[in-house]
Amino acid sequence: MSRFHSKAAAQGFSLIEMMIALMLGLIVLGAAFVLFVGNLRTFNSNDGQNRVQENARVAYEMLAADVRSTGTTACTRESSVRGVDANSAAFRAPLDGTATSLTAVGVDEMAYRVDPNNSDANRVTLLEASPAASDIFNVNDVVMVCNGSMTGFATVGSISGQQVNFSAKLPFNPADTVGASPASISIGRLRTTTWSVAPNGGPTGSSLYVDLNDGAGNQEAAVGIQPWTLLFHQAQGGNASVYAPATGGSFSYQNVDAVNMLIPIRAIIPGNAPGESNQVNRTIAATVAIRNRTP
């Protein structure tokens, strides 16, 4: 090997070659950084959209389920409500709403058949041997008892085996099933649920809360729900072709058969570029018919 060739090989890269290599490296690094930032922004945007969609789904499904079952009974909707107590009055007009809250009154979806031969205005006996009555009801629970023609409310005073005793008499005898099948007698727990939009102390500003009126108070159900617009359709006592707010002296919740809900929802993007909003805002609109008032 010649001395000239060995000296040239030992020289390595020239300054110009190193500068070109450095420039090419910076270009590749810059392109990778731009790609990374673009992917991150896309991910954050999709994450915000997913949060909005999830909260929208949760809010709609829970609200719709409560509105749909408002005023439902364990028996037929033709069963007349007896009594002048507060529970009877609430059940006759089972829906109430404002700009920030909605209260629905109904009965748990699970109802239980009653033995017509061992029931009267003071107590009822569950027809099935299981589940145990004490596993279903608690003392002081407000329950609905109904047959094919009458409905009433009572408070559970005590439970003995499958027998549920009331602290005060029902306004009718459920075993009196003239004009209705004896097998139609049922009992279920009265449910009053209040949904409200309130500040949550977080970046979304507010959330949807639910109060089951069981002493536990408000519980957060969906994050980011903003103050909504509720419009009500009245089958009678109002314009049957118009959804209207709950205002005016002629409005009656007793005549409401459907609710239109306009619900704004907000999610926060975990990262955003300077000058860009970190919020994703969407609005869902839905109309829900009250099941037992639908022809």
What does this structure look like?
It is a single chain. With 295 residues, the protein is α+β, with helices and mostly antiparallel strands. It has one domain. It contains 4 helices and 15 strands. Strands 1, 2, 3, 4, 5, 6, 7, 8, 9, 10 and 11 form an 11-stranded mixed β-sheet that branches. A 4-stranded antiparallel β-sheet has the order 13-12-14-15. The chain is elongated.
Shape: elongated
**Termini distance?**
103 Å
Q: Residue share in helices?
A: 10-25%
* Biggest sheet layout: 11 strands, mixed
How many individual domains? 1
Order of helices and strands: HHEHEEEEHEEEEEEEEEE
Content of β-strand: 25-35%
How much is the radius of gyration in Å?
32 Å
Structural category: alpha+beta
Q: Spans of 5+ residues with little confidence (pLDDT < 50)?
A: none
- Counted by DSSP, the helix tally is 4
